[in-house]
Design a protein that fits this description.
- The chain is an alpha/beta fold.
- It has a single domain, classed as Divalent-metal-dependent TIM barrel enzymes (TIM Barrel, Alpha-Beta Barrel).
- 37% of the residues lie in helices and 15% in strands.
- It is built from 8 helices and 10 strands.
- The strands form 2 sheets. It has an 8-stranded parallel sheet with strand order 1-10-7-6-5-4-3-2. Strands 8-9 form a two-stranded antiparallel ribbon.
- A hairpin with an 8-residue loop joins strand 8 and strand 9.
- Helix 3 packs across helix 4, helix 5 packs parallel to helix 6 and helix 7 crosses helix 8.
- It is globular.
- It starts with a strand and ends in a 24-residue tail after the last helix.
């Protein structure tokens, strides 16, 4: 398994080289793609992926975090086409996954907002057609399309996630794993069982992993989960790591949602400490001897 974060994310070839030593300080060998990666030319995408590999880095994910359930047909078509272009660039670069959310029917068009429709059979059927439309005709060799779970949609609990993945039935489609997004009342005080069930059902479908810890804020009137530093919440991180190591050795694991490098530094240290306690470790960056690497680049024309 390889560790990375959303904060230390090189946005260009020059930043790739400049950031390599900083990544080494924290024991990182995974990065995410630049924010504008969907706008890269094929040659630029290929060059970025090749240089990352030459530096011993695995680019684990990219994504388009917009609402695909909008009823605006023109806007939906635009988002689908942009994501298809992102998938294509990701495959050219050798990026492991490109990811989205399910989205929402909420009038705000903000993809994480709740709506009753998001939990219906009709929503599952509609989103299945969107996923198949996205994947139609793309001969992906390196990249898989993953959906990140979120509690305001049907794509939330392990059984429902498995049922949807089976219904799509595409070999390049799976789960963008984030156990922190899958916590419910039933699992909050037993995340160990949640993790074990999730991996038992979905181990073969994981495309990338996020690691976070969650705390229940009792002072808030109503249900509210807060993300907190690793080890200060309910997540059984040791069990999570043990299961991640059963996936392929290059599986990328990311920390997110902190605002300062020092906060990431603290959480990297905690995660390495937990891993060592389990006899585990994250793969270090290992620069390659040759910078020329063959990828599944699409032919021009």
């Amino acid at each position: 398994m390889r560790l990375g974060c959303i904060f230390l994310a090189p946005q260009s070839l020059a930043e790739l080289d400049a950031m390599a030593e900083t990544l080494d300080v924290y024991g990182l060998s995974a990065i995410i793609a630049p924010k504008t990666f969907g706008d890269f030319t094929e040659d630029e995408a290929y060059a970025y992926g090749e240089r990352a590999r030459a530096l011993g880095l695995v680019v684990g994910e990219t994504g388009l975090w917009e609402n695909f359930l909008t009823d605006d047909k023109e806007l939906r078509a635009n988002r689908i086409e942009r994501f298809r272009r992102l998938l294509r660039n990701a495959d050219i670069a050798g990026i492991r996954s490109a990811n989205t959310l399910v989205g929402t029917k909420h009038a705000s068009d903000r993809p994480l907002f709740p709506h009753a429709y998001n939990f219906t059979k009709e929503c599952r059927a509609e989103f299945r057609e969107i996923v198949l439309r996205i994947l139609d005709g793309l001969e992906l060799k390196n990249t898989k399309y993953g959906i990140e779970p979120w509690y305001t949609t049907f794509f939330y609990q392990p059984e429902d996630i498995m049922e949807f993945i089976v219904s799509v039935g595409h070999p390049r489609f799976g789960l963008h794993m984030d156990q922190g997004n899958m916590i419910s009342h039933a699992s909050f005080y037993n995340t160990t069982a949640m993790i074990e069930k999730t991996f038992a059902l979905l181990k073969d479908d994981v495309v990338s992993v996020h690691i976070k810890d969650i705390q229940w804020e009792g002072a808030h009137f109503g249900l509210r989960w807060n993300e907190v530093p690793l080890g200060e919440g309910t997540m059984d991180i040791a069990t999570y790591l043990r299961h991640i190591t059963t996936l392929d050795s290059d599986m990328t694991c990311y920390l997110e949602h902190f605002y300062e490098e020092r906060d990431y530094a603290l959480n990297f240290a905690r995660l390495h400490h937990i891993a060592r306690g389990e006899g585990l470790s994250f793969l270090p960056r290992q620069p390659l001897k040759s910078e020329r690497i063959v990828t599944g680049k699409f032919p021009k024309g």
